[in-house]
Amino acid sequence: MSTEVILPTLGESVNEATISRWLKEVGEHVDADEALLEVSTDKVDTEVP
Questions:
Q1: CA–CA separation, 25 vs 23, rounded Å?
Q2: In whole angstroms, what is the distance from residue 42 CA to residue 28 CA?
């Protein structure tokens, strides 16, 4: 089963991000505000809930 994950705004000039690390395994439960993955841009690295 797939689920859409919406990337939050990371800055006005950030147009793309790369998933640098998944924080959860396939099938693992994720709560609404729990970090799911880590993204990297040219300006910031951050966890995404």
A1: 7
A2: 30
- Distance of alpha carbon 23 from alpha carbon 29, whole angstroms: 11
Residue 10 belongs to some domain of the structure? no
Contacts of 35 (CB under 8 A, 6+ apart): 23, 47, 48, 49
Closest residue by Cα to residue 43 from 20, 22, 14, 18: 14
- Domain of 40 in residue numbering reads as 18-48
Residue 22 inside a domain? The answer is: yes
Overall pTM > 0.90: no
Residue-wise pLDDT tens digits, 14-42? 888 899 999 999 889 989 889 999 999 88
